[in-house]
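Minutes, structural biology subgroup

Action item carried over from last meeting: produce the structure token record for PPM-type phosphatase domain-containing protein (Candidatus Woesebacteria bacterium GW2011_GWE1_41_24). EB confirmed the sequence was re-checked against the source entry. Recorded below for completeness.
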Amino acid sequence: MERVIDTSIGINPEGHELPYYEELVLNDEEKKKLERNIERGEFIGGSYFAETVGSGAAGKMNEDSYAVFPMGKGRTLLAVFDGASSQKKIEGLERLEMSGAFYVSHLTSMIFRKSEEFRKLCQPDDITAEDVLKTINSWLPVKFDRVPGVDYSDPCSIPGMAAALVLIDVPNEKMTVAQVADTFIALQKQNGEIEVASNNTNE
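Output recorded by EB:
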């Protein structure tokens, strides 16, 4: 996957967590990559193609992000995250020239995999996409609690995110899906038929 930050960012050499404003520090060249990210790859059990394209609005970062995470022997998580900005401006992100939508989607796709919560998810022999989604949902508030301007007593200050996750588990011969809001998951069968495996929960 094309990365817009160095994989070491998020934890400093002493093993302590970096301040929120250093977790997604981007230079000008890295910001250009956000306009269009394309990746094709293989994993145990299949292959994937992923692409995100920005809106083209001047100075607006791509609010969509994707992730391909190995999650233990023979397991792979494929995910798309679609950020949604809060109704109120967030002081701590404005100074970084980032929207809440961009921050929440890229924080999840780039930093979550380095967390202790993610490491623990990879250990059991049998997990589901729903397990991953619930863990992300618990992990994000802890991260946002450090961002000036985000106040969990004021819902209008909290960014949100739609998400679609597919966990392919080869050893257990199963695939599970989890989805939030208006993202959707479509499956193409060997006979060419396409089946939608999720619902638009915004309707």
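Discussion: The chain has six helices and eight strands.
Next step: EB to file the record with the rest of the batch.
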